[in-house]
C-alpha cells in the first residue's frame, strides 16, 4: 500500500490527475489484479536486461506524463522478436517521449478475445464497477455492464452474463472457456480498490486478454479526483 500512497502523492505534487500506465499497473497489481509482466527502462543497458528477463516476443510502449493515447502517437511497437528490432523500436520511441520519458517493455500477448474492466466514481452511488467488450470494440459497440461496489461473486458473474458478447467467454471456435472465477475476482477487487482509495476517480483496464483461459490486463489507466 505504501507504493500506492507514494504514487498518488507524487502525481498530486506534479499537478497530474492522470497516472501513466506503469504507475496504474503498480496500483492494480497491489490489489491482485493480474497484469502482463513488464519492466520500465530508460536506456539501452536496461532494455537488454529487460529482454533477458522477459524474453521474446515483446511489446514496447512509450511512457510520459499525461500520455493517454500511445498508439495514435506511434509509441507502441508490438510483437518484437529480436534484439535488433527491440533496439530500433526503443530508439524511435525515446526520440518521441524525450529525456523525461521512458519505455515500458512487456511480454507480448495476442488473443482474439478482448474485454475491458474498470471503475467509475458516481457522485450519487460511489464507486461502480464496469465490464464489457474491449479493444477497439469498446467505443463501437458500447457493450458494458455496471454494478455498484462492493461486489460479491454473484454480482460479478451476473455482469459477465449481462453483456451481449457473453458467449465469447465460453468455449468458441476451439478456444477454451474463460476462467470466469479469475475474471470475477478482477471485478470484485476493482470495487474494493474504489472503496478503499477515494482519491481515484476512474480506472480503465483495456484490453483484458484471455491468455488461453486466463484473463490478464495489458493496458491500464487511472485518473485521480480533482478539478
Outline the secondary-structure elements.
Blueprint: H1 2-13, E1 18-19, H2 21-30, E2 38-41, H3 44-54, E3 58-63, E4 76-80, H4 83-97, E5 102-107, E6 114-122, E7 126-133, H5 137-141, E8 144-148, H6 153-162, H7 180-196, E9 200-211, E10 214-217, E11 220-224
Antiparallel strand pairs: 1-11, 2-5, 3-4, 3-5, 6-7, 6-9, 7-8, 9-10, 9-11
Number of helices: 7
Q: Which structural class best describes the helix and strand composition?
A: alpha+beta
Largest sheet composition: 7 strands, antiparallel
**Oligomeric state of this protein:** single chain
Which spans have pLDDT < 50 for at least 5 consecutive residues?
A: none
Silhouette: globular
User: Considering DSSP H and I runs of 4 or more, what fraction of the residues is helical?
Assistant: 25-40%
Distance between the termini: 25 Å
- Based on DSSP secondary structure assignment, what is the total number of beta strands? 11
Strand content: 25-35%
Quick check: average pLDDT? Answer: 94
Series of H and E elements: HEHEHEEHEEEHEHHEEE
Query: What is the C-alpha radius of gyration, as a whole number of Å?
Result: 18 Å
Amino acid at each position: 500500500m505504501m507504493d500506492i500512497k507514494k504514487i498518488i502523492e507524487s502525481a498530486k505534487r506534479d499537478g497530474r490527475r492522470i497516472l501513466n500506465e506503469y504507475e496504474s499497473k503498480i496500483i492494480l497489481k497491489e490489489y491482485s489484479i493480474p497484469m502482463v509482466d513488464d519492466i520500465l527502462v530508460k536506456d539501452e543497458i536496461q532494455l537488454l536486461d529487460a529482454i533477458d528477463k522477459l524474453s521474446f516476443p515483446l511489446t514496447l510502449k512509450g511512457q510520459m506524463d499525461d500520455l493517454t493515447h500511445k498508439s495514435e502517437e506511434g509509441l507502441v511497437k508490438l510483437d518484437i522478436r529480436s534484439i535488433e528490432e527491440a533496439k530500433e523500436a526503443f530508439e524511435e520511441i525515446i526520440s518521441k517521449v524525450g529525456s523525461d520519458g521512458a519505455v515500458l517493455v512487456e511480454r507480448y500477448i495476442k488473443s482474439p478475445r478482448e474485454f475491458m474492466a474498470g471503475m467509475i466514481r458516481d457522485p450519487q452511488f460511489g464507486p461502480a464497477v464496469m465490464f464489457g467488450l474491449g479493444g477497439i470494440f469498446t467505443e463501437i459497440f458500447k457493450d458494458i455492464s455496471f454494478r455498484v461496489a462492493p461486489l460479491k461473486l454473484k454480482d460479478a458473474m451476473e455482469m459477465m452474463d449481462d453483456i451481449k458478447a457473453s458467449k465469447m467467454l465460453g468455449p468458441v471456435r476451439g478456444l477454451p472457456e474463460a476462467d470466469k472465477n479469475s475474471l470475477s475476482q478482477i471485478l470484485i477487487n476493482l470495487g474494493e480498490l474504489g472503496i478503499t482509495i477515494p482519491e481515484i476517480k476512474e480506472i480503465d483496464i483495456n484490453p483484458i486478454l484471455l491468455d488461453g483461459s486466463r484473463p490478464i490486463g495489458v493496458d491500464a489507466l487511472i485518473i485521480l479526483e480533482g478539478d
